[in-house]
């Protein structure tokens, strides 16, 4: 714990103007970001008597080792900069709403020649119409299934569409009337786009006119004794009405608004948001956060608005945002929302009528979400704390290991040797700090040498960054999962989360005594003696320590053992995923991949010109020169590369039983069949069946 007076700036040094400030810990990591109308007044509040501070604020200022600030012109600029820094630095003491998933949207890709209806998550793309968000993807699929009867818009992937165009046969939805089959030209591109526009209009709430038109058509068909057509129109109307029932009208004036409610106690807060479009509730979402700083309800609302609209622009920000409490001050936040939308946004508290009644419903949802979360979290917190304490006691550590790193080696019969590093903080996975490695020091299979190399590389980087002289080396790649906040763009010592800058209290390796000894030896060679090491052997789940002849045996019911198993299994999963990815890339290799000077564009042009690698092999150099962009020298190089490679056997598409001319056809068709595996080219060009791949996977560690 640091003494705040040791880094307190002189009062005259702090400007009396708007700005954003950052507190950093002893490792130079940013642990808190805040904004202020007056930096001098706000920062003075942090350096008063510790006894007068809120407990969480006291923890923050005693964890910090320095403070710095940036002056801006207006409070709106301060709000924008604060949001940017929170996203970039991910400070541990700021309010962060935990969104347990990326909420799905119903999307219509109007930017394609044949628009497609699909479920989308993540960042919004230009030219795509979005409806939602929805709480569950199945809710979108149910709605789309009902609407496809009336609006048979394309829903297939690009691979399926391409395959149907090539074979002249539509997919199943085309045969049962739930797709207008533009892939086989049953409908023109213009008519299909008009159908997609009608679909979007219906989803946007313009339903009355369309239903009345269908009812008139049904009546006219009945009058003309076209009873089958009238029955189809009747069923269409019923399907549309059923889809409309899924989005009940709650506001009569076709309001576009987001309603936000907050339920909180001293430790945590839950936020619920209802998205109302055209007077109907189109989606719902919720977040929960720990109150790691002293905040008011207005502050929680402000942070939630930043997270909700920070990446959004245009129509994604509604005309009206209804909240339980206004931020203080409210004008900068309202101006920020207006800038995001491009037109005026009303930010207010509903006082009466239907909107206040709906807000009460949202509030009840928030209260229930908080109760449910606390019911789960109480057990989780207690369990995780007990697990960390048990590990510390079993391994004779001075304190509970709040940060644990686990390493695993993966390969297939000595090929594609890789390693993984996963990180758990406070007993929870921190995927943004996962890392993966390619073993480069030697060839072949040797788990002990591989472990020594990985630990050496990881902690050599730690020492280098600690001394502010480290540079990133090839073969050490970022992990999957959550976005890396700034680590891919910055290497200077500016407080951004570093790749290897933060040390663990405990290193866990997947293996027994040899792997543990290798890890300990690597740390000793680097002069690191304040990090504990242990290994978890799979056979009997024994915990091995360096220089110990006998393992530590934790009880099978031990929460500490369970946590170590979770960490080890996650490292194994991450390593296997990376190893399979590398192997799949190698299997998909082509003889043309290694042709010098032949990039992706010209390689694809050659394949398109001849239709297959098989036909290309039989072509003469003069015929290869006929491909646009291919000169004689390149043609000779291509011919030589194909001559060196063994001829590929015919590939069989397991989805259809059809013999393909070359490997690429099978790969395309497998993709078109929604992931049904076909054959894949092996490392020497021969096709490898799905069964063979499964047999190889069975040999993995």
TrEMBL record:
UVR domain ranges (all copies): 208-243
Record key words, sorted: Coiled coil, Cytoplasm, DNA damage, DNA excision, DNA repair, Excision nuclease, SOS response
GO molecular function: DNA binding; excinuclease ABC activity
Location in the cell: Cytoplasm
GO biological process, one term: SOS response
Domain GIY-YIG: residue ranges: 16-95
UvrC family homology region profile domain mapped to chain residues: 259-523
Gene Ontology annotations for the cellular component aspect, listed alphabetically: cytoplasm; excinuclease repair complex
Region (Disordered): 469-497, 665-701
Coiled coil (residue ranges): 211-247
Database matches in InterPro entries: GIY-YIG_endonuc, GIY-YIG_endonuc_sf, GIY-YIG_UvrC_Cho, Hlx-hairpin-Hlx_DNA-bd_motif, RuvA_2-like, UVR_dom, UVR_dom_sf, UvrABC_protein_C
Ranges of Basic and acidic residues composition bias in the record: 487-497
Function field: The UvrABC repair system catalyzes the recognition and processing of DNA lesions. UvrC both incises the 5' and 3' sides of the lesion. The N-terminal half is responsible for the 3' incision and the C-terminal half is responsible for the 5' incision.
Subunit structure: Interacts with UvrB in an incision complex.
PANTHER family: UVRABC SYSTEM PROTEIN C, UVRC/OXIDOREDUCTASE
Classification via NCBIfam families: PRK00558.1-5, uvrC
Family, similarity comment: Belongs to the UvrC family.
Name of the featured protein: UvrABC system protein C
């Amino acid at each position: 714990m640091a003494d705040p007076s040791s880094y307190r700036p002189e009062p005259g040094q702090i400007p009396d103007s708007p700005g954003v400030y950052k507190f950093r810990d002893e490792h130079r990591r940013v642990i808190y970001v805040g904004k202020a109308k007056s930096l001098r007044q706000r920062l003075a509040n942090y350096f008063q008597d510790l006894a007068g501070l809120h407990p969480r604020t006291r923890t923050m200022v005693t964890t910090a080792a320095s403070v710095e600030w940036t002056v801006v012109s207006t409070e709106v600029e301060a709000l924008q900069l604060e949001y940017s820094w929170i996203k970039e630095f991910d400070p541990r003491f700021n309010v962060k709403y935990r969104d347990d998933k990326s909420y799905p949207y119903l999307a219509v890709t109007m930017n394609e020649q044949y628009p497609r209806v699909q479920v989308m998550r993540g960042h919004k793309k230009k030219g795509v119409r979005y409806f939602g968000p929805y709480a569950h993807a199945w809710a979108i699929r149910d709605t789309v299934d009902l609407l496809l009867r009336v609006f048979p818009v394309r829903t297939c992937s690009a691979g399926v569409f391409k395959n149907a165009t090539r074979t002249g046969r539509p997919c199943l939805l085309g045969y049962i009337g739930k797709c207008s089959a533009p892939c086989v030209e049953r409908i023109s591109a213009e008519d299909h786009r008009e159908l997609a526009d009608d679909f979007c209009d219906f989803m946007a709430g313009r339903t009355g006119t369309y239903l009345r038109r269908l009812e008139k058509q049904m009546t006219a068909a009945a009058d003309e004794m076209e009873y089958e057509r009238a029955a189809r129109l009747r069923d269409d109307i019923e399907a549309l009405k059923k889809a409309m029932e899924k989005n009940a009208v709650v506001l009569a004036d076709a309001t576009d608004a987001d309603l936000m409610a907050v339920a909180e106690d001293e430790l945590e807060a839950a936020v619920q948001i209802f998205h109302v479009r055209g007077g109907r509730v189109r989606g719902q979402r919720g977040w929960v956060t720990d109150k790691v700083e002293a905040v008011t309800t207005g502050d929680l609302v402000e942070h939630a608005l930043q997270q909700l609209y920070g990446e959004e622009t245009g129509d994604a920000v509604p005309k009206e945002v209804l909240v339980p409490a206004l931020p203080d001050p409210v004008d900068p936040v309202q101006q920020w929302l207006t800038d995001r939308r491009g037109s005026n946004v009303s930010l207010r508290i509903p006082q009466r009528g239907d909107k206040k009644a709906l807000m009460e419903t949202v509030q009840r949802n928030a209260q229930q979400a908080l109760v449910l979360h606390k019911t789960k979290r109480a057990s989780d917190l207690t369990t995780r704390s007990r697990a960390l304490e048990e590990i510390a006691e079993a391994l004779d550590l001075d304190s509970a290991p709040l940060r644990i790193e686990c390493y695993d080696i993966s390969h297939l019969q000595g090929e594609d040797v890789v390693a993984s590093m996963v990180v758990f903080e406070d007993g929870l996975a921190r995927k943004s700090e996962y890392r993966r490695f390619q073993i480069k020091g030697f060839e072949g299979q040797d788990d002990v040498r591989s472990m020594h190399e990985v630990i050496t590389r990881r902690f050599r980087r730690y020492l280098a960054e600690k001394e502010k002289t480290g540079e990133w080396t090839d073969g050490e790649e970022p992990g999957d999962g959550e976005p890396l906040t700034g680590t891919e763009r910055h290497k200077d010592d500016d407080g951004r989360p570093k790749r290897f800058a933060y040390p663990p209290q405990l290193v866990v390796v997947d293996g027994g005594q040899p792997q543990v000894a290798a890890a300990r030896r690597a740390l000793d060679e680097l002069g690191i003696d304040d990090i504990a090491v242990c290994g978890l052997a799979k056979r009997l789940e024994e915990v091995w320590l360096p220089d110990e002849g006998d393992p530590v045996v934790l009880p099978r019911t031990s929460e500490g053992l369970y946590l170590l198993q979770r960490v080890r299994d996650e490292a194994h999963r991450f390593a296997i995923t990376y190893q399979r990815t590398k192997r799949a890339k190698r299997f998909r290799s082509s003889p043309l991949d290694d042709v010098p000077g032949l990039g992706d564009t010209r390689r694809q042009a050659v394949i398109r010109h001849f239709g297959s690698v098989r036909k290309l092999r039989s072509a003469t150099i003069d015929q290869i020169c006929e491909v646009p962009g291919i000169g004689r020298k390149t043609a000779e190089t291509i011919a030589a590369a194909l001559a060196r490679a063994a001829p590929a056997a015919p590939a069989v598409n397991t989805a259809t039983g059809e013999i393909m001319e070359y490997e690429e056809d099978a790969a395309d068709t497998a993709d078109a069949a929604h992931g049904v595996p076909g054959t894949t080219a092996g490392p020497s060009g021969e096709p490898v069946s799905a069964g063979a791949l499964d047999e190889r996977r069975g040999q993995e560690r």
